[in-house]
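Box 3.1. Reading complex inputs
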Amino acid sequence: MDRRVRVRFAPSPTGALHIGGVRTALYNYLFAKKHGGDFLIRIEDTDQTRYVPGAEDYIIESLKWVGITADEGVGFGDGPHAPYRQSERKPMYRQYVMQLIDAGLAYYAFDTSEELDAMRERLKASNVDSKYDAITRMAMKNSLTLPEDEVKRRLDNGDNYVVRIKLPKKEDVKFHDEIRGWVNINTAQMDDKVLFKSDGMPTYHLANVVDDYLMNISHVIRGEEWLPSAPLHVLLYRYLGWEDVMPKFAHLPLLLKPDGNGKLSKRDGDRLGFPVFPLSGAFPDKDGNMESFTGYRESGYLPEAVLNLLAFLGWNPGSTQEIFSKQELIDAFSLERVSKSGAKFDQNKAKWFNQQYVRHTDNAVLAAALKKEVEARGISGFSDEYITQVCGLMKEKISFIKELWEMGSYFFVEPAGYDEGVIEKKWNDRSPLVLQDIIQLIRPIDQFTAFGFEAAYNDALTKNGVSNKDFMQLLRVCLSGAAGGPPIFEMGVLFGKEVVLQRLQKALDTIKK
RNA sequence: GGUCCGUUGGUCAAUCGGUUAAGACGCUUCCCUUUCACGGAAGAAUGAGGGGUUCGAUUCCCCUACGGACUACCA
């Protein structure tokens, strides 16, 4: 029975979308496109207390930036199963909860949080797992222990209650994970999870299962942190009578910190100095303080590179090819080749990926980015043509777009200083003489070409008996201030004769040792 | 603590019982280059430990160790 592939990415709008979340979305997207299916986005905002305004937009914008698009859902024009926000689907869940209660598979519970705490502490003290389960529920206030009329009275009275699933005392729940194989958990290890909260909202578990069923989801591809609750979801499908259309599960390995242990977290970005989020932004933390963070986009990463490097964190094609376009990823992707163990994020590799993409990016595209940087500094007077040529010279030298400016600002402004190491090592009594001669030889040139510039330079060297090796880098430093850079004579020609003359003169006037 | 998942070089990783255990990033050396980079060549570096199964285990099984996730009226 081949059913249409329909997968979903279902984030909670509780803050910025972590790069690991982007990867989850990506794998869902790739899987859907690979199988000609649908990818949809559902917002799981059942916890009103954790809702962060703007988070939803951030998530959508992030996905769009890396090139992930959805066929249905929030941010992508909805679709046949609208609404796609669980808060807006609130009225839909109650009937399924009632269905479970009527079937004796769920029950009302009236315990206060104090009572729950007390229960947990009591059990902990006696060294027993503190779960609300088949044993402990009999000592709590719920529709299993309270007289029927008492339950009715409380309900009619509008008392606070939750609905919990009624799990069997001891029963194996087995399910197949597409990545890990068969997983078996006994209900004795699980607890009677809350399905329906006292605020009238379903919990993740219930909403997730109901929506996946209603939206005809064929595969649930999500992070490994969900593996322990997967049996609960399996049971829910069974109890609701949907087991025959239950989606297949695939639990993805986690993204780990580059150093030490643990999964990649928000803080790691600042601590290690690399982005953990796709886009720069700021959101309130749990205490309500605004916390800002930098993104891949603002750090100069190309979206295609991010897509590529993310795809390779936990998956590989089994070949030696590493650079993949989006379409190539779609063609090559399979859950089978997703690895089981977590992957540590490697900054160097990320940089390398970006470098590959920068190098193959059209000069005009790079120029647009560089132009922004230039204009942002209030610098004008440079043509698009000039900026494009700068990019052509610089792109072999950089790994990140932002380095176009960082390493090539001298194409637009005078160098602020001269590389001290080079001056220290190469500058001597004869240097000013050579510079002087270069200036004199260049000045009369009408057609300033790389060839002419080089010829003038060589003549000056010969005249003073100085070798290339000793002066070459000095010339570069005099022109750009930097020790490295693009081919020097081409660079000079791009500067133009006047700028070259002026900079050499300035070097002559200022460099002293 | 309990449950579940995992474990090939520093990192990402291939291998679906038999290989000199790929490849990439990073690192080192050399070549190219009148600099830096790119490119090219080479090198160091890996199957957590212990038991089995087998003619033969990185590969299958068990134990131990280690790592991770989960353990809320959060997702």
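In summary: Chain A has a mean pLDDT of 93.
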